Amino acid sequence: MLSLPSARHLHRRLFSSSCVLNDKAGFGSHPGKKSGKRPENHDERFQRILKPSTRQQKDLPFRVELDGIVVQKPTFSRNTAGRLVRFDGTAVARTPPPTPRPPKPASIAFPDLSFEMSTRRKRAPLDDKARAQKRANKLRKVRPDPSSPDDVLYRDILEVLGEDHVDAAIEAKTEFESPFEKMEEAVIEIVKISADGRGLGIAPQEKGKPWAVVVPHVFPGETVRVKCAITHRMYTGADLLEVIKPNPEYRDNSLIQCKYFGECGGCQYQMVPYEKQLAIKRNVVKGAYKLYSYLEPSEIPEVLETIGSPLQYGYRTKLTPHFDLRKNRAPEDPIPPIGYNRLGKPGVLDIEECVIGTKAVNEGLTTRRAEVETNINTYKKGATLLLRESLETTLGLPLSNDLTDEQRTEAVEKKICVSNAKTTVRERVGDVFFEYGANSFFQNNNSVLPPLIEYTRKAIFPEGLANRPTHLIDTYCGAGLFGIALAKEFERVSGVELSADSILAAKRNAQHNNLSADTVSFRAGDASDIFKVVSDFPPEKTAIIIDPPRKGCSDDFVKQVVALAPQTIVYVSCNVHSQARDVGNIIRGMKAKEGGKRYNFESVRGFDLFPQTHHVEGVAVLRLVEA
Ligand SMILES: C[S@@+](CC[C@H](N)C(=O)[O-])C[C@H]1O[C@@H](n2cnc3c(N)ncnc32)[C@H](O)[C@@H]1O
């Protein structure tokens, strides 16, 4: 704690400050220690007088004059009667004594507020219309962001209900008034799959108004019985009770591999044949470009078939199960469930195996669960467990020719599970070796990365391309996945990434893969910073990879891409809706720019990095052509 100097101390300091003044006259403000061994010299005597002890101060006259220097003593002191006096003896005016505080009452009487409180509570109850209006006002305040999941769902709902009906409901201010009672059961025909993997149905006609019902784990053409759970703008979120009429095109329950499917909020499509899953995802990409790119239909290429994942189960190299702990949990209370959120219900579902996870992360799950169970009383609140697959040894480093066959197999195949966020994870993508922090971003499906990298390579260097790019800008580069995997194809590669840890990993990865820092460089910063440092990249020979987080790119970034006008753009994204928005902006931006060039939207398709779930990775390719 910082201690304040005492009044006496301040007093002395004040006095000694005059020494500093005197120092200007050449007397030295730092007196030497008084030594008993030799007589006091002139300076020391002077200092003693300038910095006397408190006792000496009292005896000193008000003014001291030594060798023509006048030193003034502190101004005030107390006389023998305890009165404050100046050093010249004159009395200081007394400050009036403080007025005494009124005595505290023996007990404080609180005013009786019961009357006011009860009137406040007894406000006239809202009628149904007022309640609906209040709710509508509340919901209106939280308009979803364009291209956010809520907005995407809302656009899907507009499509199934018809924009005219929706406009009429908004006009009549009934857009938040559900025709269903809470917990009402209803039979619904499903007409569409929304981008978040849930089925969309329309309320039966007898309900008298267009209203959507959103149900998990159901598909177009199915008739289902549901329980209405929660009202949102223009739709009711419902729980599935029964599939009355299944659609065999989408539903083959024999495909389900997880015993928790239907209860766990993780996967949506385990009952859907894999080809059909890919088709659903292709439609999601189509819908995204139709709704969010704001391009003319003629400007959007035919969305190509989704490229599947070589592994459809056992592919996920990262799991993050969690558990909650009740406040005031007693040590003898049961172990809480450790797993994932329940589907459509609050709370965590206990899961001891996740079938989309790799063998290594599932082994790690068993170990970590046991550790948590043993140490549960050391946790004050819930936690998220990190489980990441990693190559076991540093033998995973670029394989040396000196390795025995056994070592070589071990280097490529032996996997362990890492659960400490500070540990390094090692991973091989084809022939390329990567290291990154366990807590940092890296794609979670290793099996699909070689085809994804190869696809990107072919997109940049299509057969017969006359003007091959020689420079690559890898934006949002993470640990350098694209830049490093494709580096051999380019004279120069430059990557940018916000996370300093990932950039350190990217630089290390370049070294591990024998890439020189002159050719491949990475820098930490906002993606739009990259344009300052690639001024020596010839735009007509430059390709750029854009792989942003779900929210997509900033306007500033898009503007700078347009200003640079690189020859090829490959935009990879786990959110095809924000991708469609950005691609539309780049194409329009280039059209508006003078210079006689435009971007040809060459291709777009999904990559299935997340089998059994509704997620899809979009890859869009744009190439600069004469306008
Ligand atoms: C989808 S990941 C892609 C990473 C890498 N391309 C890969 O495939 O491993 C997006 C990356 O963008 C980074 N990021 C987020 N916002 C950024 C920004 N404004 N500028 C640069 N990088 C950003 C994140 O840290 C994350 O590593």
Automatic annotation (TrEMBL):
Family: Belongs to the class I-like SAM-binding methyltransferase superfamily. RNA M5U methyltransferase family.
GO MF, any single term: tRNA (uracil(54)-C5)-methyltransferase activity, S-adenosyl methionine-dependent
Active site: 574
Keyword entries, A-Z: Methyltransferase, S-adenosyl-L-methionine, Transferase
InterPro entries linked to this entry: MeTrfase_TrmA_AS, MeTrfase_TrmA_CS, NA-bd_OB-fold, SAM-dependent_MTases_sf, tRNA_(uracil-5-)_MeTrfase, U5_MeTrfase_fam
Claim: S-adenosyl-L-methionine is one of the keywords in the record: yes
Superkingdom of source: Eukaryota
GO biological process entries: methylation; RNA modification; tRNA processing
Basic residues bias: start-end ranges: 132-141
Protein name: S-adenosyl-L-methionine-dependent methyltransferase
